Design the sequence.
DNA sequence: GTGAAAGCGCTAACAG
DNA sequence: CTGTTAGCGCTTTCAC
């Protein structure tokens, strides 16, 4: 079926502050005062008249004009590798909310994890005059030149190392991983593999170092290392290689929940059981991890707090005060995949009646 | 550690078109012409001078000013219930890309699925002067009044019924569900349950009707109906109720992949096997479905195409031509959960060498 | 408590 | 081919 659309283009021309002023019998300045609650006071009765005119006319302030005048778009930009990745989706959502709470909208952009795209997206955001940018790069050394000579404040979100001149917020990647390995050791494992996502860059991911340290502290040799993409497919492939390994490890630490989910599938297909034949511990603490089978033990990142801190850092950025690297502690969430919880967790225990 | 930030606020004041004009020794108009490639032609040598001045100064056009002048922000808005839901994440990502390809940025907003929030977000987007909005509501009757009397073109995305005055794009909810049930019947099932998400509204979801029809066509009675939230937790709870049912069904059709993932966990916990003890067919075709255990048979929505069509409809909207409801066909993706594929799918079969 | 007016940076007539 | 200029709608200083 086909219908005639609402509100044809031929409708009323845009209503401006001026129309409101005329209808309310005041000046445009007064309209501004009541809309913005300042900077001058307005007598209650005039204010009421203005408000009435506003709703009678269905007036909406024009954000572009406001942005032009104020030199601020009241928008923040965020570039992430992939909003489809649950971890980044959750992070972006948290940032969006924290930003909204302060009156800022969030312009989200996917980089697909390539430096070139990152640069392009940053440039695009810059030209849209966002008031600041969150950069969640997957690269060790994101290309910051674009950010450096735009006047735009930026914070590196999900970045756990120091970058001179930039605020950043991250988590204890190394310590979290170390503790996860330590935990697996506590379950009696002595051959613990690592499934590690690949970053474009040649530094060692701190998660890898954490795994090494955990092993070293326990006096254990390093198990096999499997490198793969940071996604389900990558984890799946790594899992296939892992179960086929000659001296099959009895446990594995995986660098992200997403990869662990893929790995779990490969393990199931091979007819092995988790955690009996292979214990699994992953990283992130996303919702995926809670509903996989078995549920994944994982190192949980405090996404909410990180988002909050990032927004705080970005909005409060004066361009002068010293730059900081906020590192958040992580939590071990123990579920069945490492051998801890054989049964459903309390949170989920009781089915709703009926 | 703490470092002194880059680009202190005391840096150069914003560079405008005027600075460029001065440096290039031309008028501001000429700068505009070369930046926008029109509307007038500029001699190659002047153009070169201008471009040089632009990069020498690091000039960036001010989008706010442009938006004000043009009456277009070159931004589109999208409100979805939850970007954290993989289906909407994927949809939003596809829309973002389709929009970007046409020079539009996407302002994303979460409504949490409540009508009040939807309205608030639409209003917010409207005040930011987006050139159009995609509304992906989970409600049967989204509150469109806000859209109706803003002048903003809108398309209802993920909406499969006709709404006078609005363009909309959706999928064959009913037909897809019917075929899923038909498929389960083909596997020999005679007691097929329904796990159905709850919408705020009192119309029947077309998926429910499709399930009914599938059953009716096979001359089968309706199995139990379990209603729950549209998330993993909801599916989990429904699954718990389902496995505890007196006359336990041998198959179930689930209204979304996310719910099915939750259900799968409940089934596993109960010690039942899928598909032997309970066959499962779900709806959406998201990535989650491919990596659950067992992999889910699901009714796949053509997300890419839908996004493309939605952007097309929104940008090409002239406010006059008649409004359309574009309904896309769906595909049955057959995997292990319904009893079809006992082994890994070809797509995933070969592990990368090594 | 209210109003007039000067721009914010850009585009696109219109005039040369 | 190039330049001048009038606004787009809003905020805010300064005068009343």
Sequence:
């Amino acid at each position: 079926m086909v219908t005639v659309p609402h509100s044809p283009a031929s409708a009323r021309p845009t209503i401006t502050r001026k129309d409101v002023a005329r209808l309310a019998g005041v000046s445009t300045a007064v309209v501004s005062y009541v809309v913005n609650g300042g900077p001058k006071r307005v007598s209650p009765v005039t204010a009421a008249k203005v408000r009435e005119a506003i709703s009678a006319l269905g007036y909406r302030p024009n954000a572009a004009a406001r942005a032009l005048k104020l030199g601020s778009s009241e928008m923040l930009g965020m570039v992430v590798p992939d909003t489809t990745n649950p971890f980044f989706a959750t992070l972006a959502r948290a940032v969006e909310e924290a930003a909204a709470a302060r009156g800022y909208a969030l312009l989200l952009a996917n980089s697909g994890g390539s430096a070139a795209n990152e640069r392009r997206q940053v440039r695009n955001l810059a030209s849209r005059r966002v008031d600041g940018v969150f950069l969640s790069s997957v690269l060790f050394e994101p290309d910051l030149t674009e950010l450096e000579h735009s006047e735009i404040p930026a914070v590196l979100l999900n970045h756990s190392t120091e970058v001179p001149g930039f605020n950043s917020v991250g988590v204890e990647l190394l310590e979290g991983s170390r503790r996860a390995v330590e935990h697996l050791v506590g379950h009696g494992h002595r051959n613990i593999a690592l499934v590690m996502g690949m970053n474009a860059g040649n530094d060692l991911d701190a998660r890898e170092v954490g795994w090494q340290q955990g092993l070293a502290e326990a006096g254990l040799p390093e198990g096999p290392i499997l490198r793969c993409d940071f996604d389900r497919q990558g984890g799946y492939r790594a899992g296939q290689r892992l179960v086929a390994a000659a001296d099959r490890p009895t446990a594995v630490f995986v660098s992200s929940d997403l990869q662990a989910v893929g790995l779990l599938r490969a393990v199931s297909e091979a007819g092995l059981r988790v955690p009996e034949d292979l214990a699994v511990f992953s990283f992130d603490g996303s919702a995926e991890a809670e509903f996989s089978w078995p549920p994944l033990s994982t190192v949980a990142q405090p996404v909410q707090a990180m988002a909050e801190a990032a927004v705080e850092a970005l909005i409060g950025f004066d361009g002068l005060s010293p730059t900081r690297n906020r590192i958040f502690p992580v939590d071990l969430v123990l579920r069945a995949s490492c051998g801890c919880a054989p049964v459903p967790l309390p949170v989920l225990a009781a089915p709703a009646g009926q």
In short: The two ends of chain A are 42 Å apart (CA to CA).
